[in-house]
Each structure stands twice: as structure tokens, then as C-alpha cells.
Specification:
Chain lengths: 411, 411
């Protein structure tokens, strides 16, 4: 029985999850592959740190020793960030190793060069865990939707933002309180900028776009907004209207990308996606609308995606990774249907005249206000006036119904 | 460039959808496969019926002519029901054709013999479209969750029942009215028995069980209940409590199978699945909880599953169809945690004494009633007494939260 040598880079949350999954599932993995597997080395930052649990594999603090005299067959990168991850992956591919990564920042920025290098070297570079945590988003798109053209994708791709918004809504706590809890629970990093500013979701959207359409939108043209400015009152107001605020990625086949907080109604497939769950709603021309939901972060869920990627290296032919399905970028005129917005502002700053003007523009207006807050909210269906409006927040609302979508497909 | 000959059996909703998808997508399919495809024949029931749209392939009313002198490479069965589908599939496999089918009744009953025959003949028998319409449930389970053990599956697998329940809730119409609309829209068959009695979902659950665990529960031990007796008042009562009635399939790794109406709360991943959508919530030991949602019926969605199956015959190795992942049946003690029930009955038949008895048994009781109906409802958490209860309906309630499930996985 031949042997597969695996090296693991990093022993943080993801690395530890991968380590224990490989160890715990060794018999099943070996049975599925018909080969033995062995952890040939683990790269750690601090060799002085006591680690009683990791006695089954040699620990190294120098990357050179990971490649050693005889390079491993597979390198799993669980370090994150651009450097030194980029250098280590490049070196591994050059040494003829398959590489598995969960590193969305790196793949969004340098994925193309790494994929090209892998092809040149006749090895594979796979990264299911970089988008949607444990959800097999990338492989579903490329392996199970071969003939389906992806028209647009709508997703909750940042578990931390989703957890914060869910927690504010259900407990009535403020943004800083929810963020602190997310950090305590280990969902958010000590520096949560990438999560709450929408950058983490943006990187994942870039990986997705390249994966589906073979190309990324221009980085500077994408609209990226995080949840840092969301106030509790706004979430509560929305709830009175039967709406929930979700931090969404919206990507379509004309390469228009928006990453921002959006209100969704109770019929929307992403309405019920709560806590640290992620979800992706994929609209295709043949199947219709397929939604995948699951844990977007966490050691075990991410380890699941990485171990499944590992099995795919040895269990399938290499057709999928290198051969995209049929989706392509579509040139589309800018004509968009009228959108619904929730406009929120301070009572004293919004005159009756402003409201009248909006009504005159053919908008459907509804007024809701919280008893103890000096806010006013208007539901507006139509094109927003270009002139500045005296509202503190303007959220787009997606009134997309699962049943309507299904009927559209069926009738 | 070599050629793949395809024969299509049946030109109903599914057959017509497959026909037009194959025709419309011919260039892309040929590009993906690097082979030409040709419809070598279509089997129809009534040769006298005028069909101006089907000029691209010869129409036959005798099955023998479909196999002809040189058998097609692939036979797509879109007839439904046990006979003559079973005979035609058997004959096709014997003649060395791959077979694709959407026929859950047949696969639930005779799948094993057909799979065995396909193996003997060195061809493949695939049937993604038989469970969950366009959702790639079967292939996700077998191709993307190789190392994940499936602990339990919870699904909405009958689009007609889901449409009827959704429609009653949102419009306040009665069961017969909703059923009539479902028939008008073509969701329900002229004889809707299989849909509304839960048999359609039951067959799909049997296909799923065999697929995941390699074995079916005993047919006579499964609890199967349809939505035929559901009253509008019950749905409205449930809504007052924040609950929705869903017709669910509940299958676990001890081979316990229940197919019946269940109440779910707004945090449950299947709460927002409305209209003819289907959804499957797959609980695994590593990834956690993965939910797939999409159109459960309709010509195009079903055609999508069939055409994707067709591509998989020629694009992947044959490892997956014949090599299940690691899930296995678990022997489990009968100890189940206390369940929550909604008990609904006529006011005049439920004494204060009954309520007191239930309260004394340590249950958490809550009372709701509609102003204009003589009904009473009690929310009960605990084990139901064995003695007969004076309620007309007793629904189990699933208070499963996406965020809680995710936390369970993560913490």
C-alpha cells in the first residue's frame, strides 16, 4: 500500500482542526483512498510553546524542513494572510506538491499566478475552504452545475457580520457589545477590521467571481460596505416591517459586485440564515435558484472542506479543477428594475416637504417609528433621487420570494 | 469526433424538458464532452398526437425500435411509475446502455436490482432527479461529503405538499382550494394521492436512505402521514405561535424514518422554504449542518438534474456511483430527548382537568385560541402520555436553531 505524505503549515484554529480531523479519520481516509496517509511535518511559529497534543508528527519552525529532502505529496496551508503564505505555497508547488489552502485574501489577490504555477508543475491547487467555510460552494458550482449558467449569486459570506447582526436583533444589544461577544467566541479576529468592514466577504466574492466567470470585477469598481455603522434602532425598525438586515455579497454575470448590508423579507432564502452560518443563493438559467447553507467558520467545518479537498485530489480525475463549466460574462445594459429602499432618519431633520416630494415621485411610502426613538423610516419603491436626502441610512430591500422564484422557473 | 447516441423514453413534462434542454444546450454539452450528441429516438405513447416541435429525432411508439439494431449509449427514462418503466430500464441495461431516471417509485422499490444489473453489464444507472428535483442532493452526499458521516437528514421532498401548506398559510384558503390550484399549476398530478398522502416523499426518503446508508428502513416500520387532514385553523394557530407547518422527511443513522407534518420555528433552516421548493438539511459529524434548497419539481429543474447526470457519465470516473462514502447505520438506544408538541382540539371536548393533568406532568403549557373558532391549542414540552388525549391534532414541533446548531458545532 503506497503512502501519501502530508505537511501542515500553521497550528491556529484551522490548522488544529485539520490536524485532529486527519488523525481521527485516518482509517476511513485510508480505506477510501486505498493508500496510507502520514503527517510528515507541521510548521509552527513558536517552537517553545508546549503542545502535548501534537506528538504524532514532527514540528518544525523553519519552512525548509517541511519540504525536506523528499517533498511531501500534499501541503495544507493554514497560516492565512499574504506573506509568508504566498512564498510557502509557491515553493511547495515548485517542489511538486499539491497545495490545499483556505486563504481567501491570498487567493483573491494572487490566485491566478498560483493556479498557473500549479498547472505548469502538473500538480493541483485547491481551496474550497476559502469561500463559505464548510459549505462545498466551489465544488458544487464546478462539478455539479456543469451545464447550468450562473446568472447571479447572492451570499452571506462573513460569519462574523452575520453573527453580530443576528445577535443585535435577537438580544437588543449594541454593535460594540455584539462584536465583543463575537471576539470572545472566537468568531472575530482580535483585529476585526476585515470582517466588519466587509473586506473578508469582498475577498471571497472575488474568489467566487474568478471561479464562476473566469475573471474578477475591477477591484476599485466594486461597492464594498461593512456593518460598522449599523445601529440597533435600524435593525429594530426593520423587524417591525418584517425585514432583517443581512450583510450580502451580490454578484452577477455582468461582473457587477456589491458587498453591503441589505434588508431581506421573510420569503427571501437568506432571511433565516442566522448566527455564524454562511449561505449562497445561486441563480442559474436551467435549474433555477439553488441555495446552500452551512457553518461559515469554525475549526471542524473548515477542516471538513480541507479534508474533502484532499480526498478530491486522489479520488477524482483532474477535469473539474481545470475545466470551468459554461458560465460567462454577459454585457448588459444598465437598465435595472426599480428597487425598494428603507430610508431611516431623525424626525427633526426630515420635513413634511421631503416626504411629499418622495410621494410625488410615484414612490410607495410607509411610515414606521419606534416609540422611544426620534427616528422615522420610509419604505420607498422606485429610483432614488440623485439629490442628497436628509436620511442617516438608506438600505436596499430584497423582496425576493422563494415561491415566486420557483414559479418563475416553472411557469 | 465520436458521437453519443441518446434515447428518450416519454414526452410528458419531464421528457419535454429534457428534450428541449438537450437541444438548446447541444453546443455547450458537445464542447464540455468533446463529443457530438444525437437524439436517436423518442418513445411516445400516442403516435397520432400532433407534435410539431419534435422534428429533430425519430418518434417511436414501440420500445424495440428505441434499442434498434445498434443500441443507444444512454437511455433517459421519463415515463414514471413501475411498469413498463422497469422492463424498459432492464432491457436497456442488458443492451449495454447507461440509464438515467427520475423515477422515485421505481428506484425505491427496485433500485437495488437495477443497480446490480448495471454493475454486471459495466454500465451506470444514475438518478439524481429522483430526489429533490433540481437540487443535486445525491451527488453532494456522495461526491462532496466523502469523509462526513451523515447523522440525520431532514427534508421537504414533496413540492406539492409544500406548495399547498404555503398557499393555505399566505392566502387563508382551505386545503381543497389549495389542492385545486396546485393541480391547475401542474404541480400535483390529476390523481394527487401520492403527493398528499406522503407516499412521494416516502419513496424519495427510501432512495436517500439506500444512497446514504446502503440500506432502507423496513417499509412497514416507517411512520408515513400526509397533509390530507390539515385544517386551515391549525395553520393559522401555528402562525400565531411563530410556527409553520411543513411536511418533513426525518431520517437518521439508526434508520428511523418519519414522513409527516411537523411544526418548525423561524430559526429552523426549513422554515423559509416555501412554494414548490424542496430542501434537505444534512447533519454530519464534521461539517455540521448543511442545507440545500431549490426547485423540487418542474420541467427545467428536473431536466437540469438529468442533463448534469448525463455529463457525469462521461466527465467523471465511475468511482462515486459505486463507492459510497463513510456513513453507516448506528445502533442506538431508544432514549430520545423530550419533544415539544402542539396539541389542538375543540374547546368543548377538552376539560380543565385534562389541562391540569398535562401541567402536573411537568409540561410547559401555553394556551392560544382563535377568536372565531372553537379551538384550543396547548404547547407541551415533554413525553406525551400514552393514554388517548382528547385532541383532534397533535403536531411535533422542531425548535432547532441554525445559530444554535452552528454553535454546537463550533464550541
Amino acid at each position: 500500500m503506497s503512502e501519501i505524505k502530508i505537511a501542515l503549515l500553521g497550528l491556529g484554529t484551522v490548522g488544529t482542526g485539520v490536524y485532529s480531523s486527519l488523525l481521527k479519520r485516518k482509517p476511513e481516509i485510508e480505506q477510501l483512498l486505498g493508500k496510507r496517509i502520514r503527517l510528515s511535518g507541521i510548521l509552527i511559529k513558536n517552537p517553545a510553546k508546549p503542545r502535548s497534543d501534537f506528538q504524532k508528527a514532527p514540528l518544525y519552525s523553519e519552512f525548509e524542513k517541511i519540504l525536506g529532502k523528499e517533498a511531501p505529496n500534499v501541503v495544507i496551508e493554514a497560516i492565512g494572510g499574504i506573506e509568508p503564505a504566498r512564498t510557502y505555497i509557491t515553493r511547495s508547488l515548485e517542489a511538486g506538491c499539491h497545495v490545499i489552502s483556505a486563504n481567501k485574501d491570498l487567493i483573491a489577490r494572487h490566485g491566478e499566478e498560483l493556479i498557473r504555477l500549479a498547472k505548469e508543475k502538473g500538480v493541483r491547487f485547491v481551496y474550497e475552504a476559502s469561500v463559505g467555510g464548510g459549505i462545498p460552494v466551489l465544488r458544487t458550482l464546478r462539478e455539479l452545475l456543469r451545464i447550468n449558467k450562473v446568472q447571479h449569486v447572492e451570499g452571506i459570506l462573513n460569519g462574523t457580520s452575520n453573527f453580530i447582526l443576528s445577535h443585535m436583533r435577537t438580544t437588543g444589544c449594541t454593535f460594540p457589545e455584539a462584536l465583543e461577544l463575537a471576539q470572545q467566541k472566537g468568531y472575530a479576529e482580535p483585529d476585526p477590521t476585515n470582517d466588519i468592514e466587509g473586506l473578508d466577504a469582498f475577498y471571497k466574492a472575488m474568489v467566487l467571481s474568478k471561479w464562476i466567470y473566469g475573471v474578477q470585477p475591477l477591484w476599485e469598481e466594486a461597492e464594498v460596505k461593512g456593518i460598522g455603522n449599523v445601529r440597533l434602532e435600524e435593525i429594530q425598525l426593520a423587524e417591525q416591517l418584517g425585514l432583517r438586515l443581512k450583510h450580502l455579497v451580490l454578484l452577477d454575470d455582468s461582473l457587477e459586485l456589491k458587498v453591503k448590508p441589505v434588508l431581506v423579507d421573510s420569503e427571501h432564502p437568506l432571511y433565516g440564515v442566522e448566527g455564524v452560518d454562511n449561505a449562497v443563493r445561486i441563480q442559474t438559467d436551467l435549474l433555477g435558484c439553488l441555495t446552500l447553507q452551512g457553518p461559515g467558520a469554525g475549526a471542524e467545518a473548515t477542516a471538513s472542506a480541507i479534508v474533502e479537498d484532499f480526498l478530491s485530489l486522489y479520488e477524482t480525475g483532474s477535469v473539474y479543477q481545470d475545466k470551468p463549466a459554461v458560465s460567462e460574462v454577459v454585457q448588459r445594459k444598465q437598465a435595472k428594475e426599480g428597487t425598494t429602499y428603507l430610508l431611516i432618519g431623525e424626525k427633526e431633520h426630515i420635513s413634511g416637504e421631503t416626504i411629499s416630494v418622495l410621494q410625488l415621485q410615484g414612490a410607495v411610502l410607509d411610515t414606521v417609528s419606534l416609540p422611544d426613538a426620534s427616528v422615522i423610516a420610509l419604505l420607498y419603491a422606485g429610483d432614488l433621487p440623485v439629490s442628497p436626502l436628509p436620511f442617516t441610512s438608506i438600505y436596499p430591500v430584497r423582496l425576493s420570494s422563494a415561491s415566486e422564484a420557483a414559479e418563475e422557473v416553472l411557469l
